[in-house]
Amino acid sequence: MLFDGSTTQEQFSALGENFVSYFLINHARVGPNDRILDIGCGLGQKARPLTRFLSSDGSYRGLDIVSKAIDWCRDHYRAFPNFEFSLADVFSSEYNPDGKVLAKKLVLPYPDESFDCVLLASVFTHLLPDDVEHYFQEIARVTRPGARMISTYFLFNDEARSHIRAGRIHLPFRKARSLRKQVHRVLDPDVPEKAVAYEEDWVRALHLRNRLSIVEITYGNWSGRTDLVLCLQDTIIAVKE
């Protein structure tokens, strides 16, 4: 059932443990009593280590568009009453081609200012610009002031472009077929949501427009950079103003 970039149970566990420890706990300073929303939770890669970290006063809400993943998590996390998993029937040409809701129309099923932390690992790498903009608006709505947002991307900037020219890039992104300002590239023009990369300046501006202050960027190895933290994608930590 693995569809999150891991191919074995050992790799699945290691990726989740590393991400939660390095980014959520040590860098974003997520606490055991925090209310966490994991958009794109998949099979619970991040939920697994959080069962040992969160207290009974903390909570975890996982949301995904793959129904089999949500069914699996609901079954296997029944022993954790503060963990809850919900299905969003959002269309994705890659992961949910029968979905009935467009990503740019999704309303997150949570009240305003519900969360202390929102996590999106490998979500914006599968969404097109209009969808990303809408998700940011919804995230700004459901987070309280001071909440942390941890999200991953394929970010195009001058360093990434220099690695491309040197032939070091691992993923051959190409310009997308788009009538709007060119802010993104795709891996497969026929299935654009398979993998999407964004100009870093555009992503930074999107954070600012939604009152999310970027406090840290850790670049992954997708563009040929040296692998420092066992992370393919670029990770941004931001704080809600």
Structural description of this entry:
With 241 residues, the chain is an alpha/beta fold. The chain has a single domain (9-154, 200-240), classed as Rossmann fold, CATH 3.40.50. It is 28% helix and 24% strand. The protein contains six helices and eleven strands. The protein has helices at 9-27, 47-53, 67-76, 129-142, 158-165, 200-209; strands at residues 35-39, 59-64, 83-87, 115-120, 143-153, 155-156, 174-175, 184-186, 196-199, 212-218, 234-240. Strands 3-2-1-4-5-11-10 form a seven-stranded mixed beta sheet, with helices on both faces. A four-stranded mixed beta sheet has the order 6-9-8-7. β4, α4 and β5 form a beta-alpha-beta unit. α1 packs across α2 (47-53). The longest helix is centred in the first third of the chain and has 19 residues, at 9-27.
- The rough form would be described as globular
State the helical fraction. 25-40%
Secondary-structure class? alpha/beta
End-to-end separation in angstroms reads 38 Å
Strand order of the largest sheet: 3-2-1-4-5-11-10
Spell out the CATH superfamily: Vaccinia Virus protein VP39
Might you state the CATH topology name?
Rossmann fold
Which CATH C-level class is it? Answer: Alpha Beta
| Uncertain regions spanning at least 5 consecutive residues | none
Number of continuous helical runs: 6
Mean pLDDT: 92
Total DSSP E strands: 11
User: How much is the radius of gyration in Å?
Assistant: 17 Å
Strand content: 15-25%
**What is the count of distinct domains?**
1
Topology order in helix (H) and strand (E) letters:
HEHEHEEHEEHEEEHEE
| CATH architecture label name | 3-Layer(aba) Sandwich
- Major sheet details: 7 strands, mixed
